[in-house]
Amino acid sequence: MKKKKSTKSNTMWGGRFEDKPSDIMEQINASIGVDQRLWRQDIRGSIAHCQMLAKQKVLSKKDSEAIIRGLEQIAEEIESGRFVFKTELEDIHMNIESRLKEMIGEPAGKLHTARSRNDQVATDFRLWVRDAIDEITHLIEDLQGTLDDLRDKHANDPMPGFTHLQAAQPVTLGMHLSAYSCMLNRDKLRFLDCRNRMNESPLGSAALAGTPYPIDRNFTAETLGFDQPTASTMDGVSARDFAAEFLFCCAQAGVHLSRLAEEIILWSTTQFGFVRLSDSWSTGSSIMPQKKNPDAAELIRGKTGRLNGNLINLLTVQKALPLAYNKDLQEDKEPVFDSFDTLSLGLQAMRGMLETATFDTERMLEAAEDGYTTATRLADWLVMELGIAFRDAHHITGTIVKMAEKKGCKLHDLALADMQAVEKGITDDIFRVLRVKTR
Ligand code: ARG
Q1: Is the CB of 123 under 6 A from ligand 1?
Q2: Half-sphere exposure of 213 toward its Cβ, with a 13 Å CA cutoff?
Q3: How far, CA to CA in Å, does 233 sit from each of 78, 211, 332?
Q4: Which of 83, 310, 330, 342 is most deeply packed, by most CB within 10 A?
């Protein structure tokens, strides 16, 4: 291991230090590789903070204008890829501030008045998660739109409905897909709930105890689109339940996608043959030329592992943390960024796959007719038309199903006379319910 460097200490906080951090210390401490994704939010937060300091006469108009102009220029540099992120400057906050110093000189050092990186990062992160929720809810709505179109298109296309993955009763493909649209709708509402609860501004909490400057927390909260400042400064800098809640929302939505993915995987097998995926949404095998694999669906199912893991990750990071800020909290961003990326990709892949898939409605109808799926309808007919008690109707139906099983035919292929031998009240009308669909 290399010995610690003996060059100058850190310019941002190194006043009482004689030595620089050792290489490994620098590595474990730096978060710039991850938190550079917060740059937009960091600049937005800094501009709001600076405007507030100027309004409160903590900063002069001249200094604040120079700072804001500098920050806007930095935004352009980052946007265009010209900005150089440096590990020795640890994180996004110090990378930006240090560049500001290079650009505008001494006034840059005044931006951090009445602020700590603790309330700065808590603010940035809330802004980021809020933007992420807005993007994800749109992607959910897009997928819902696709599912709802398919629901309408296949409103009258029968398929077997399953319980225990055994053919149970006939349903329509429309009914089946509509169930997923309902799940996604709850997912969306869950994200919006999360957004509502988290929409408070930690800015002004400073390190943990607030600050003696005459700041205006309501101003920064409003400027940044928050409903209000957090009530407690100590909670403001250390709360990450909003991020954990976001991760739960992602995990639950991912689990819903995974259930749908599982059905697509089953349905695309030769055994089911309910759906054919388009070439652009499947892959081939390098050894078996006949294969067409539902990889996107499998990956959506497989990525549930990351989504669930990320939630446990952040819950565990928070566990047993004393108030207020602890560096452990720097570990909060990676799982959140990863879940956002993973779920966004999954929602888009699911949509693309469904939009280009072809459902074999003939095959689904045939399957709906297999497995005596209309037996419950037969029992209900006996109750409704003949006034037979349901338990007795169930028994009679069982006898008729056994008869069809012995003959190796479908229920609607039985002769009326054979059914009448079991229950004499049965009439011709029975075929109306025995057939899944009159062709
Ligand atoms: N990079 C840090 C984080 O993400 C910023 C806050 C650092 N605060 C501190 N007291 N060292 O949490």
Answers
A1: no
A2: 21
A3: 31, 10, 19
A4: 310
Strands 166-172 and 158-163: antiparallel
323 Cα–ligand 1 center, Å: 14
96-115 per-position pLDDT tens digit: 999 999 999 999 999 999 99
**Strand 228-229 vs strand 200-201: parallel, antiparallel, or unpaired?**
parallel
Domains along the chain with CATH numbers: 19-110 (1.10.275.10), 129-155+173-358 (1.20.200.10), 372-434 (1.10.40.30)
Query: 123-137 in b/e burial notation, b at 16+ Cβ within 10 A?
Result: bbbbbbbbebbeebb
CA of 334 to the centre of ligand 1 (A): 14
Helix, strand, coil share of the chain (percent; to 5): 65, 5, 30
Please state whether the predicted TM-score (pTM) of the whole model is above 0.90.
Answer: yes
H helix or E strand, kind and range, residue 394: helix 390-407
Which residue numbers are catalytic? 164, 285
Distance, in Å, from the CA atom of 43 to the CA atom of 95, rounded to the nearest integer, reads 11
Instruction: Please tell me the distance from the alpha carbon of residue 392 to that of residue 90, in angstroms, as a whole number.
Output: 76
Q: Ligand 1: does its nearest atom lie under 6 Å from the Cβ of 128?
A: no
Residue written as token pair 């991020």: 243
Nearest C-alpha neighbor of 131 from the set 37, 216, 205, 51: 37
pLDDT tens-digit profile of 41-59?
999 999 999 999 999 999 9
Nearest CA to ligand 1 atom 3: 330
Q: Are 132 and 191 in contact (CB under 8 A)?
A: no
For 400-431, write each residue's pLDDT tens digit: 999 999 999 999 999 999 999 999 999 999 99
User: How far, in Å, is the centroid of ligand 1 from the Cα of 122?
Assistant: 9
Whether 121 lines ligand 1, by a CB cut-off of 6 Å, is yes
